[in-house]
# Entry
Amino acid sequence: MVSVEPLKYLLLSGEGIFRGDSKETALLIEKEKLFGLKSLMQFGSSGLLAYRNVPESVSPFLQILGIGVEENAAEEESAFNERYGKLSIHVETNSQRFAESSTKLLKYGSKAHSISVFSIQNSKEELVHHIVNRCNEFLQLSEPDKPSKINVLMIHLIPEESSGHEVPSSKSLSPADILLTFNEVITYFMHNPSDSSPTYPLPPIDYGKPLPPSSELVNELFIKQDALAAKPPPPPPHSLWISLVGSGWEVKPLSREEYLIKPSYHFSFDRDIYKQLSNKRLGFVHCCPGHTRIDEQTEFCEESFEHGSWKTIRAEQLLSEIAYRLHCTPKFGA
# Structure
């Protein structure tokens, strides 16, 4: 019998980390030599999340959890069960308001969810250490053959200056700080050379971006042209799927009349939600060698996310894709 490692999922989410000119993010990554974020783009695939309009005091990241996307609580619970099945989620956040708004989770689906709030009192290094410890605790990374305590660990960070959110902290935290923190966490798992700690060996360079991107077929492959004979990547000691989601970008969507075919993200359960959608987007990138495709986007900027292989999907659809890969639900929408 073939042994299959349990797939483990870490979702890093930061509010406002893509704020301002998207090129600023790319320049910061290049200047600070943020190898974790660069590797995530190099060996991952990206896209945008469309979300419904919300008041300024309400975080759009709640919609990733399936909260605030249906007309009433009964419909929301039913939709949650259909989208995510028995998926279990732990939310770790520095925002008291986000934690309180997330408590609806506790009544939905598997009801095995949990939420905790932590304060940022000390250095960025200690914050990175805290996140890594939570990953090891909830995802059982030191025991790759052992299932996680929960299916999804969502780390949610919000800057202190964000309006309408009570952040229990005595340490200043800016959007750039969040991005740098996430880079350190990703670097720890992707580039940590210690034999005693879980590492995340990357595929050989032949498994990089498909070049040239002249064929739609090539874009669907995990390998680039002439790499069919390349040595396969070594099996990782754990199958950790890392996703990074950030907010702060504004797009200029086409009017309904400009679409040749109406995009699927304009619809939810056969309902047309086009007029409910915000003109802002969350950007995301996935990376798990052997599980996620590798698209041709290399730069950590708005244009790359917009042209990523995931294109645009609804915010609540993100975890339904993950739930399917974690064997928590049948393929949603199939």
